[in-house]
Amino acid sequence: MATLTPDFCIIGSGAGGSVAAAVLAQAGAKVLILEEGAHHTRRAFNMQESWAYPALYQDHGNRATDDLAIIILQGRAVGGGTTVNWTSSFRAPERTLGLWRERHDVDIDAATLAPHYAAVEERLNIKEGTFDDVNRNNQKLWDGASKLGWQPELIRRSVKGCARLGYCGLGCPIDAKQSALITFVPDAVAAGAELRPDCRATKIELEGRRVVSVVAEGPDGPITVRPRRGLLVAGGAINTPALLLRNRLDSNGIVGRRTFLHPTVPVIGIFREPVEAFYGAPQSVSCHQFADRLDRVGYVLETAPVHPMLAAIAFPGHGEAHRQIAARLPFVQATIALLIDGHHDDVGGAIDVTAGGRINIAYPIAEPLREAARDAIKNMARLLLAAGAEQVMTLHDDPVTIRDEGDLARVDRTPFEPQRHTLFSAHQMGGCPMGQDTRRSVVDSRGRHHAIENLWITDGSVFPTALGVNPQLAVYAHARLFATQIARQG
After folding, report:
1. Residue 159 in contact with residue 125, Cβ under 8 Å?
2. Cβ distance 457 to 256 under 8 Å?
Protein backbone atom coordinates (compact mmCIF):
# COMPACT_ATOMS: atom_id res chain seq x y z
CA MET A 1 0.00 0.00 0.00
CA ALA A 2 1.43 3.36 -1.07
CA THR A 3 1.78 6.01 1.66
CA LEU A 4 1.80 9.74 0.90
CA THR A 5 2.56 12.59 3.33
CA PRO A 6 1.36 15.95 2.00
CA ASP A 7 0.68 18.95 4.19
CA PHE A 8 -2.97 18.89 3.14
CA CYS A 9 -5.12 16.20 1.60
CA ILE A 10 -8.14 17.50 -0.33
CA ILE A 11 -10.97 15.14 -1.25
CA GLY A 12 -12.74 16.37 -4.37
CA SER A 13 -11.70 18.63 -7.26
CA GLY A 14 -14.91 20.56 -7.94
CA ALA A 15 -15.57 24.20 -7.16
CA GLY A 16 -14.74 23.82 -3.47
CA GLY A 17 -11.77 21.48 -3.64
CA SER A 18 -10.05 23.06 -6.64
CA VAL A 19 -9.91 26.63 -5.39
CA ALA A 20 -8.85 25.49 -1.92
CA ALA A 21 -6.06 23.42 -3.48
CA ALA A 22 -4.88 26.38 -5.55
CA VAL A 23 -4.86 28.77 -2.58
CA LEU A 24 -2.95 26.38 -0.31
CA ALA A 25 -0.46 25.28 -2.96
CA GLN A 26 0.23 28.88 -3.96
CA ALA A 27 0.86 29.64 -0.28
CA GLY A 28 3.64 27.04 -0.31
CA ALA A 29 1.85 24.01 1.14
CA LYS A 30 2.30 20.53 -0.27
CA VAL A 31 -1.17 19.54 -1.46
CA LEU A 32 -2.63 16.23 -2.63
CA ILE A 33 -6.03 16.18 -4.40
CA LEU A 34 -7.98 12.91 -4.41
CA GLU A 35 -10.75 12.76 -7.02
CA GLU A 36 -12.97 9.70 -7.38
CA GLY A 37 -13.85 10.55 -10.99
CA ALA A 38 -11.68 10.32 -14.07
CA HIS A 39 -9.54 13.05 -15.62
CA HIS A 40 -11.17 13.79 -18.96
CA THR A 41 -10.06 16.60 -21.24
CA ARG A 42 -11.74 18.37 -24.14
CA ARG A 43 -10.72 15.65 -26.59
CA ALA A 44 -13.09 13.27 -24.78
CA PHE A 45 -16.07 15.62 -24.79
CA ASN A 46 -17.88 14.39 -27.89
CA MET A 47 -21.25 16.07 -27.17
CA GLN A 48 -22.95 12.67 -26.94
CA GLU A 49 -25.33 12.08 -24.05
CA SER A 50 -24.78 8.33 -24.26
CA TRP A 51 -21.11 8.85 -23.36
CA ALA A 52 -21.34 11.85 -21.05
CA TYR A 53 -23.85 10.67 -18.46
CA PRO A 54 -22.01 7.42 -17.62
CA ALA A 55 -18.60 9.09 -17.79
CA LEU A 56 -19.19 12.42 -16.07
CA TYR A 57 -22.09 12.01 -13.62
CA GLN A 58 -22.63 10.28 -10.30
CA ASP A 59 -24.25 6.86 -10.69
CA HIS A 60 -24.01 7.20 -14.49
CA GLY A 61 -26.58 9.97 -14.35
CA ASN A 62 -29.06 7.76 -12.47
CA ARG A 63 -28.67 9.20 -8.97
CA ALA A 64 -32.08 9.87 -7.47
CA THR A 65 -33.92 10.20 -4.20
CA ASP A 66 -34.98 6.94 -2.56
CA ASP A 67 -38.52 7.18 -3.86
CA LEU A 68 -37.22 7.98 -7.37
CA ALA A 69 -39.20 11.22 -7.27
CA ILE A 70 -36.23 13.54 -7.95
CA ILE A 71 -33.52 12.85 -10.54
CA ILE A 72 -30.21 14.19 -9.19
CA LEU A 73 -27.66 15.42 -11.73
CA GLN A 74 -24.27 15.65 -10.05
CA GLY A 75 -20.79 15.66 -11.55
CA ARG A 76 -18.19 12.93 -11.10
CA ALA A 77 -14.90 13.83 -12.80
CA VAL A 78 -11.93 16.11 -12.34
CA GLY A 79 -13.58 19.50 -12.00
CA GLY A 80 -16.65 17.96 -10.34
CA GLY A 81 -19.91 19.68 -11.11
CA THR A 82 -18.13 22.58 -12.81
CA THR A 83 -17.18 20.26 -15.67
CA VAL A 84 -20.84 19.58 -16.47
CA ASN A 85 -22.75 22.65 -15.28
CA TRP A 86 -24.36 25.24 -17.53
CA THR A 87 -21.97 28.11 -16.56
CA SER A 88 -24.58 30.26 -14.73
CA SER A 89 -22.79 32.41 -12.14
CA PHE A 90 -24.55 34.21 -9.28
CA ARG A 91 -23.32 35.70 -6.03
CA ALA A 92 -25.23 34.57 -2.94
CA PRO A 93 -28.33 36.76 -2.51
CA GLU A 94 -28.20 39.25 0.36
CA ARG A 95 -31.48 37.87 1.72
CA THR A 96 -29.93 34.39 1.96
CA LEU A 97 -26.81 35.61 3.76
CA GLY A 98 -29.05 37.58 6.13
CA LEU A 99 -31.14 34.50 6.83
CA TRP A 100 -28.00 32.50 7.61
CA ARG A 101 -26.80 35.13 10.07
CA GLU A 102 -30.16 35.57 11.79
CA ARG A 103 -31.39 31.97 12.00
CA HIS A 104 -28.29 29.82 11.66
CA ASP A 105 -25.62 31.82 13.51
CA VAL A 106 -23.30 32.12 10.50
CA ASP A 107 -20.58 34.77 10.76
CA ILE A 108 -20.30 35.69 7.06
CA ASP A 109 -21.60 38.70 5.18
CA ALA A 110 -21.34 40.09 1.67
CA ALA A 111 -18.37 42.31 2.54
CA THR A 112 -16.41 39.33 3.85
CA LEU A 113 -17.04 37.40 0.63
CA ALA A 114 -16.54 40.32 -1.77
CA PRO A 115 -12.76 39.98 -2.38
CA HIS A 116 -13.12 36.23 -2.86
CA TYR A 117 -15.92 36.67 -5.37
CA ALA A 118 -13.82 39.23 -7.21
CA ALA A 119 -10.80 36.92 -7.42
CA VAL A 120 -12.86 33.96 -8.58
CA GLU A 121 -14.82 36.02 -11.12
CA GLU A 122 -11.59 37.28 -12.62
CA ARG A 123 -10.10 33.79 -12.90
CA LEU A 124 -13.29 32.33 -14.40
CA ASN A 125 -13.78 35.30 -16.76
CA ILE A 126 -17.27 35.97 -15.40
CA LYS A 127 -18.65 39.05 -17.14
CA GLU A 128 -21.98 40.83 -17.30
CA GLY A 129 -24.56 38.95 -19.33
CA THR A 130 -25.03 39.79 -22.99
CA PHE A 131 -27.85 39.29 -25.47
CA ASP A 132 -25.34 37.53 -27.74
CA ASP A 133 -25.80 34.55 -25.41
CA VAL A 134 -29.59 34.52 -25.63
CA ASN A 135 -30.79 31.67 -27.85
CA ARG A 136 -34.43 31.20 -28.82
CA ASN A 137 -35.05 29.03 -25.75
CA ASN A 138 -33.96 31.82 -23.40
CA GLN A 139 -35.51 34.52 -25.58
CA LYS A 140 -38.94 33.04 -24.89
CA LEU A 141 -38.33 33.39 -21.15
CA TRP A 142 -37.18 36.99 -21.65
CA ASP A 143 -40.13 37.87 -23.88
CA GLY A 144 -42.80 36.30 -21.68
CA ALA A 145 -41.43 37.75 -18.45
CA SER A 146 -41.06 41.19 -20.04
CA LYS A 147 -44.64 41.22 -21.31
CA LEU A 148 -45.88 40.33 -17.83
CA GLY A 149 -43.71 42.96 -16.13
CA TRP A 150 -41.62 40.38 -14.28
CA GLN A 151 -38.21 41.97 -14.92
CA PRO A 152 -36.07 39.21 -16.44
CA GLU A 153 -32.29 39.42 -16.02
CA LEU A 154 -29.31 38.36 -18.10
CA ILE A 155 -27.17 35.71 -16.41
CA ARG A 156 -23.41 36.07 -15.99
CA ARG A 157 -21.54 33.06 -17.38
CA SER A 158 -18.11 31.54 -16.69
CA VAL A 159 -16.90 31.32 -20.31
CA LYS A 160 -14.15 32.59 -22.60
CA GLY A 161 -14.42 32.31 -26.38
CA CYS A 162 -17.74 30.47 -26.14
CA ALA A 163 -19.04 29.04 -29.43
CA ARG A 164 -22.50 28.53 -27.89
CA LEU A 165 -22.63 24.89 -28.96
CA GLY A 166 -25.33 24.19 -26.39
CA TYR A 167 -23.82 21.08 -24.79
CA CYS A 168 -22.23 22.54 -21.63
CA GLY A 169 -23.72 19.74 -19.52
CA LEU A 170 -21.71 17.15 -21.46
CA GLY A 171 -18.30 18.79 -21.03
CA CYS A 172 -16.93 21.61 -23.19
CA PRO A 173 -15.08 20.31 -26.29
CA ILE A 174 -13.28 23.62 -26.89
CA ASP A 175 -12.38 24.56 -23.29
CA ALA A 176 -14.48 27.71 -23.53
CA LYS A 177 -16.25 26.91 -20.28
CA GLN A 178 -13.99 28.13 -17.50
CA SER A 179 -14.54 25.13 -15.25
CA ALA A 180 -12.26 24.07 -12.41
CA LEU A 181 -10.94 21.45 -14.83
CA ILE A 182 -9.08 24.12 -16.82
CA THR A 183 -8.60 26.85 -14.19
CA PHE A 184 -8.11 26.15 -10.50
CA VAL A 185 -7.02 22.51 -10.81
CA PRO A 186 -4.23 23.43 -13.24
CA ASP A 187 -3.39 26.43 -11.05
CA ALA A 188 -2.95 24.09 -8.08
CA VAL A 189 -0.85 21.63 -10.07
CA ALA A 190 1.32 24.46 -11.44
CA ALA A 191 1.99 25.50 -7.83
CA GLY A 192 3.12 21.98 -6.94
CA ALA A 193 -0.08 20.16 -5.97
CA GLU A 194 -0.48 16.52 -6.93
CA LEU A 195 -3.74 15.37 -8.54
CA ARG A 196 -4.80 11.74 -8.23
CA PRO A 197 -7.94 10.96 -10.28
CA ASP A 198 -9.84 7.66 -10.02
CA CYS A 199 -9.10 7.64 -6.28
CA ARG A 200 -12.09 7.22 -4.00
CA ALA A 201 -11.57 8.13 -0.35
CA THR A 202 -13.14 5.49 1.90
CA LYS A 203 -11.68 5.78 5.38
CA ILE A 204 -10.73 8.63 7.71
CA GLU A 205 -8.73 7.68 10.80
CA LEU A 206 -8.42 9.84 13.91
CA GLU A 207 -6.16 10.05 16.91
CA GLY A 208 -7.88 12.10 19.54
CA ARG A 209 -9.27 15.19 17.83
CA ARG A 210 -7.03 15.03 14.75
CA VAL A 211 -7.18 13.29 11.40
CA VAL A 212 -4.05 11.18 11.03
CA SER A 213 -4.76 9.28 7.82
CA VAL A 214 -7.05 8.86 4.86
CA VAL A 215 -7.39 5.62 2.91
CA ALA A 216 -8.42 5.74 -0.74
CA GLU A 217 -9.01 3.11 -3.39
CA GLY A 218 -6.89 3.97 -6.41
CA PRO A 219 -6.51 2.41 -9.85
CA ASP A 220 -3.40 0.53 -8.68
CA GLY A 221 -4.68 -0.43 -5.25
CA PRO A 222 -5.17 1.24 -1.86
CA ILE A 223 -3.40 4.48 -0.97
CA THR A 224 -2.79 5.78 2.55
CA VAL A 225 -2.45 9.53 2.98
CA ARG A 226 -1.03 10.97 6.19
CA PRO A 227 -1.61 14.72 6.00
CA ARG A 228 0.74 16.66 8.23
CA ARG A 229 -1.48 19.72 8.59
CA GLY A 230 -5.01 18.73 7.74
CA LEU A 231 -7.80 17.26 5.63
CA LEU A 232 -10.21 19.27 3.49
CA VAL A 233 -13.34 17.42 2.35
CA ALA A 234 -15.01 18.77 -0.80
CA GLY A 235 -16.91 15.83 -2.22
CA GLY A 236 -20.19 17.71 -2.64
CA ALA A 237 -23.38 17.92 -0.63
CA ILE A 238 -24.19 14.22 -0.94
CA ASN A 239 -20.80 12.50 -0.96
CA THR A 240 -19.27 14.61 1.82
CA PRO A 241 -21.96 13.78 4.42
CA ALA A 242 -21.90 10.15 3.25
CA LEU A 243 -18.13 9.92 3.77
CA LEU A 244 -18.40 11.33 7.29
CA LEU A 245 -21.28 9.01 8.13
CA ARG A 246 -19.40 5.95 6.86
CA ASN A 247 -16.61 6.88 9.24
CA ARG A 248 -18.97 7.65 12.14
CA LEU A 249 -17.89 11.29 12.26
CA ASP A 250 -21.22 12.63 13.42
CA SER A 251 -20.79 13.66 17.01
CA ASN A 252 -23.94 15.80 17.25
CA GLY A 253 -26.29 13.94 14.88
CA ILE A 254 -26.34 16.77 12.34
CA VAL A 255 -24.38 15.23 9.46
CA GLY A 256 -26.63 14.43 6.51
CA ARG A 257 -29.61 16.34 7.92
CA ARG A 258 -30.95 19.50 6.28
CA THR A 259 -29.98 18.47 2.75
CA PHE A 260 -31.42 20.80 0.12
CA LEU A 261 -31.87 20.17 -3.59
CA HIS A 262 -33.51 23.20 -5.21
CA PRO A 263 -36.21 20.77 -6.45
CA THR A 264 -36.68 21.82 -10.05
CA VAL A 265 -40.07 21.78 -11.75
CA PRO A 266 -40.10 21.92 -15.58
CA VAL A 267 -42.85 22.71 -18.06
CA ILE A 268 -42.63 22.75 -21.83
CA GLY A 269 -44.08 25.24 -24.26
CA ILE A 270 -44.80 24.12 -27.80
CA PHE A 271 -44.37 26.84 -30.41
CA ARG A 272 -45.36 27.10 -34.04
CA GLU A 273 -41.87 28.17 -35.07
CA PRO A 274 -38.69 26.18 -34.27
CA VAL A 275 -37.02 26.90 -30.93
CA GLU A 276 -34.20 24.34 -31.22
CA ALA A 277 -33.44 24.47 -27.51
CA PHE A 278 -30.57 22.03 -27.99
CA TYR A 279 -28.41 24.82 -29.53
CA GLY A 280 -26.98 27.93 -27.90
CA ALA A 281 -25.99 28.86 -24.36
CA PRO A 282 -28.14 26.64 -22.10
CA GLN A 283 -28.94 29.39 -19.60
CA SER A 284 -28.62 33.12 -20.20
CA VAL A 285 -31.86 34.55 -18.74
CA SER A 286 -33.44 34.25 -15.30
CA CYS A 287 -36.46 35.73 -13.56
CA HIS A 288 -36.53 36.31 -9.79
CA GLN A 289 -40.05 37.72 -9.60
CA PHE A 290 -41.15 34.95 -7.22
CA ALA A 291 -37.95 34.34 -5.26
CA ASP A 292 -39.33 36.02 -2.14
CA ARG A 293 -42.98 35.11 -1.51
CA LEU A 294 -42.86 36.11 2.18
CA ASP A 295 -44.28 33.19 4.16
CA ARG A 296 -44.41 30.82 1.19
CA VAL A 297 -41.62 28.90 -0.57
CA GLY A 298 -40.14 31.02 -3.35
CA TYR A 299 -38.74 29.99 -6.71
CA VAL A 300 -36.55 31.25 -9.54
CA LEU A 301 -37.36 30.81 -13.24
CA GLU A 302 -34.69 29.74 -15.72
CA THR A 303 -34.47 27.61 -18.85
CA ALA A 304 -33.08 24.15 -19.55
CA PRO A 305 -31.64 22.82 -22.81
CA VAL A 306 -33.75 20.18 -24.53
CA HIS A 307 -31.30 17.48 -25.60
CA PRO A 308 -32.85 14.24 -26.87
CA MET A 309 -31.93 11.88 -24.01
CA LEU A 310 -32.69 14.32 -21.21
CA ALA A 311 -35.92 15.29 -22.94
CA ALA A 312 -36.97 11.68 -23.38
CA ILE A 313 -36.55 11.10 -19.65
CA ALA A 314 -38.51 14.23 -18.77
CA PHE A 315 -41.34 14.12 -21.30
CA PRO A 316 -44.56 12.55 -20.01
CA GLY A 317 -46.54 9.67 -21.43
CA HIS A 318 -45.74 6.27 -22.88
CA GLY A 319 -45.71 4.68 -26.31
CA GLU A 320 -47.41 6.69 -29.02
CA ALA A 321 -48.22 9.64 -26.73
CA HIS A 322 -44.57 9.97 -25.76
CA ARG A 323 -43.46 9.58 -29.39
CA GLN A 324 -45.73 12.40 -30.50
CA ILE A 325 -44.26 14.81 -27.96
CA ALA A 326 -40.69 13.75 -28.80
CA ALA A 327 -41.41 14.35 -32.50
CA ARG A 328 -42.04 18.03 -31.67
CA LEU A 329 -38.58 18.38 -30.08
CA PRO A 330 -37.37 21.27 -32.29
CA PHE A 331 -40.49 23.27 -31.38
CA VAL A 332 -40.23 22.75 -27.61
CA GLN A 333 -39.17 25.40 -25.11
CA ALA A 334 -38.32 24.33 -21.53
CA THR A 335 -38.80 26.65 -18.58
CA ILE A 336 -37.86 25.48 -15.10
CA ALA A 337 -38.60 26.68 -11.58
CA LEU A 338 -35.97 26.17 -8.86
CA LEU A 339 -37.82 25.85 -5.55
CA ILE A 340 -35.88 27.61 -2.78
CA ASP A 341 -35.98 25.04 0.00
CA GLY A 342 -34.89 25.59 3.59
CA HIS A 343 -35.82 29.26 3.94
CA HIS A 344 -39.01 28.59 5.88
CA ASP A 345 -39.93 25.70 8.16
CA ASP A 346 -38.97 22.93 5.72
CA VAL A 347 -36.02 20.85 6.87
CA GLY A 348 -35.14 19.46 3.45
CA GLY A 349 -33.97 15.90 3.09
CA ALA A 350 -31.54 13.52 4.74
CA ILE A 351 -28.49 11.55 3.64
CA ASP A 352 -27.89 8.15 5.22
CA VAL A 353 -25.64 5.21 4.39
CA THR A 354 -26.42 1.53 4.68
CA ALA A 355 -24.24 -1.00 6.45
CA GLY A 356 -22.71 -1.75 3.06
CA GLY A 357 -21.97 1.92 2.43
CA ARG A 358 -24.74 2.65 -0.09
CA ILE A 359 -26.05 6.22 -0.07
CA ASN A 360 -29.75 6.75 0.65
CA ILE A 361 -31.27 10.16 -0.13
CA ALA A 362 -34.64 10.81 1.47
CA TYR A 363 -36.42 13.95 0.37
CA PRO A 364 -40.14 14.29 1.12
CA ILE A 365 -42.05 16.82 -0.97
CA ALA A 366 -43.98 18.54 1.81
CA GLU A 367 -47.09 20.61 1.16
CA PRO A 368 -45.26 24.00 1.13
CA LEU A 369 -43.10 22.70 -1.70
CA ARG A 370 -46.10 21.26 -3.54
CA GLU A 371 -47.87 24.61 -3.26
CA ALA A 372 -44.80 26.37 -4.66
CA ALA A 373 -44.56 23.84 -7.49
CA ARG A 374 -48.20 24.33 -8.48
CA ASP A 375 -47.85 28.09 -8.32
CA ALA A 376 -44.67 27.93 -10.41
CA ILE A 377 -46.32 25.74 -13.04
CA LYS A 378 -49.18 28.22 -13.42
CA ASN A 379 -46.86 31.21 -13.68
CA MET A 380 -44.54 29.44 -16.12
CA ALA A 381 -47.58 28.66 -18.25
CA ARG A 382 -48.65 32.30 -18.17
CA LEU A 383 -45.14 33.33 -19.18
CA LEU A 384 -44.92 30.93 -22.14
CA LEU A 385 -48.38 31.79 -23.39
CA ALA A 386 -47.39 35.46 -23.24
CA ALA A 387 -44.29 34.55 -25.27
CA GLY A 388 -46.48 33.02 -27.98
CA ALA A 389 -46.65 29.32 -27.15
CA GLU A 390 -49.52 27.47 -28.83
CA GLN A 391 -49.82 25.36 -25.72
CA VAL A 392 -48.00 24.59 -22.49
CA MET A 393 -47.71 21.07 -21.15
CA THR A 394 -46.97 20.06 -17.59
CA LEU A 395 -44.77 17.03 -16.95
CA HIS A 396 -47.25 15.11 -14.82
CA ASP A 397 -47.57 11.46 -15.77
CA ASP A 398 -51.01 12.51 -17.03
CA PRO A 399 -50.03 15.93 -18.37
CA VAL A 400 -52.14 19.03 -18.13
CA THR A 401 -52.33 20.91 -21.41
CA ILE A 402 -52.77 24.67 -20.98
CA ARG A 403 -53.90 26.89 -23.84
CA ASP A 404 -55.35 29.83 -21.93
CA GLU A 405 -55.92 31.20 -18.43
CA GLY A 406 -59.02 29.06 -18.00
CA ASP A 407 -56.95 25.87 -18.09
CA LEU A 408 -54.79 26.85 -15.10
CA ALA A 409 -57.29 25.68 -12.50
CA ARG A 410 -56.65 22.11 -13.64
CA VAL A 411 -53.12 22.32 -12.26
CA ASP A 412 -54.46 22.58 -8.70
CA ARG A 413 -56.67 19.52 -9.23
CA THR A 414 -53.86 17.33 -10.58
CA PRO A 415 -51.88 15.29 -7.99
CA PHE A 416 -48.33 16.45 -7.36
CA GLU A 417 -46.90 13.37 -5.69
CA PRO A 418 -43.72 11.25 -5.96
CA GLN A 419 -43.32 9.83 -9.45
CA ARG A 420 -46.42 11.69 -10.64
CA HIS A 421 -44.43 14.65 -11.99
CA THR A 422 -40.89 15.02 -13.38
CA LEU A 423 -38.53 16.69 -10.89
CA PHE A 424 -34.81 17.32 -11.18
CA SER A 425 -32.04 18.59 -8.95
CA ALA A 426 -28.81 20.01 -10.31
CA HIS A 427 -27.98 21.92 -7.10
CA GLN A 428 -27.23 19.92 -3.97
CA MET A 429 -26.55 21.86 -0.76
CA GLY A 430 -26.45 21.30 2.97
CA GLY A 431 -25.86 18.18 5.03
CA CYS A 432 -22.87 19.60 6.93
CA PRO A 433 -24.12 23.10 7.78
CA MET A 434 -21.86 25.83 9.06
CA GLY A 435 -22.55 28.04 12.06
CA GLN A 436 -21.10 29.11 15.37
CA ASP A 437 -23.61 27.09 17.42
CA THR A 438 -22.02 23.65 17.83
CA ARG A 439 -25.39 22.10 18.65
CA ARG A 440 -26.88 22.96 15.24
CA SER A 441 -23.92 22.87 12.86
CA VAL A 442 -21.03 20.64 11.77
CA VAL A 443 -18.39 23.27 10.96
CA ASP A 444 -17.81 26.86 12.00
CA SER A 445 -18.19 29.88 9.72
CA ARG A 446 -14.77 29.24 8.19
CA GLY A 447 -15.38 25.58 7.41
CA ARG A 448 -13.51 24.07 10.36
CA HIS A 449 -15.08 21.02 11.99
CA HIS A 450 -16.31 21.70 15.50
CA ALA A 451 -14.97 18.44 16.96
CA ILE A 452 -11.96 17.61 14.74
CA GLU A 453 -9.37 20.36 14.82
CA ASN A 454 -7.61 19.66 11.49
CA LEU A 455 -10.66 18.84 9.37
CA TRP A 456 -12.36 21.40 7.13
CA ILE A 457 -15.27 21.15 4.69
CA THR A 458 -15.08 23.36 1.60
CA ASP A 459 -18.10 22.58 -0.55
CA GLY A 460 -21.82 23.36 -0.78
CA SER A 461 -22.65 20.95 2.03
CA VAL A 462 -21.83 23.76 4.49
CA PHE A 463 -24.76 25.91 3.29
CA PRO A 464 -27.44 25.95 6.03
CA THR A 465 -30.22 26.29 3.43
CA ALA A 466 -30.54 26.28 -0.31
CA LEU A 467 -28.89 29.32 -1.83
CA GLY A 468 -31.78 30.54 -3.97
CA VAL A 469 -29.61 30.82 -7.09
CA ASN A 470 -27.24 28.49 -8.97
CA PRO A 471 -24.56 27.78 -6.36
CA GLN A 472 -21.27 27.20 -8.20
CA LEU A 473 -19.89 30.73 -7.75
CA ALA A 474 -20.87 30.86 -4.07
CA VAL A 475 -19.12 27.52 -3.46
CA TYR A 476 -15.95 28.85 -5.06
CA ALA A 477 -16.06 32.05 -2.99
CA HIS A 478 -16.75 30.36 0.35
CA ALA A 479 -14.03 27.78 -0.27
CA ARG A 480 -11.55 30.51 -1.15
CA LEU A 481 -12.45 32.34 2.06
CA PHE A 482 -11.92 29.18 4.11
CA ALA A 483 -8.66 28.21 2.39
CA THR A 484 -7.24 31.71 2.72
CA GLN A 485 -7.74 31.56 6.48
CA ILE A 486 -6.23 28.06 6.65
CA ALA A 487 -3.16 29.28 4.75
CA ARG A 488 -2.76 32.27 7.08
CA GLN A 489 -2.78 30.02 10.14
CA GLY A 490 0.55 28.57 9.01
Report:
1. yes
2. no
Q: What SS3 class is residue 27? A: coil
CA 51 – CA 109 distance, rounded (Å):
41
Q: What residue type is 116 in one-letter code? A: H
Residue-level pLDDT at 162: 97
Q: Are 260 and 430 in contact (CB under 8 A)?
A: yes
What phi, psi does 258 have (nearest 5°)?
Answer: 50, 50
Q: What is the pLDDT of residues 78-95, one digit of tens each?
A: 999 999 999 999 999 999
Q: Minimal CA–CA distance to 338: which of 470, 140, 185, 198?
A: 470
CA distance linking residue 27 with residue 198, whole number of Å: 26
- C-alpha to C-alpha distance for 20 and 369, rounded to whole angstroms: 34
Strand partners of residue 455? 231
Rounded CA gap, 302 and 158, in Å? 17
Q: Name every residue whose Cβ is closer than 8 Å to that of residue 376 and which is 6 or more positions away in sequence.
A: 265, 290, 299, 301, 337, 339
Average pLDDT over every residue of 42-61: 96
Distant-in-sequence, close-in-space partners of 420: CB < 8 Å, separation ≥ 6: 396, 397
Mean pLDDT on 291-301? 97
For the entire predicted model, the pTM comes to: 0.97
**How many CA atoms, within 13 angstroms, populate the side-chain half-sphere of residue 86?**
24
Cβ within 8 Å of residue 157, ≥6 positions away: 87, 88, 89, 126, 127, 129, 133, 281, 283, 284
Q: DSSP assignment of 470-485, as one string?
A: --HHHHHHHHHHHHHH
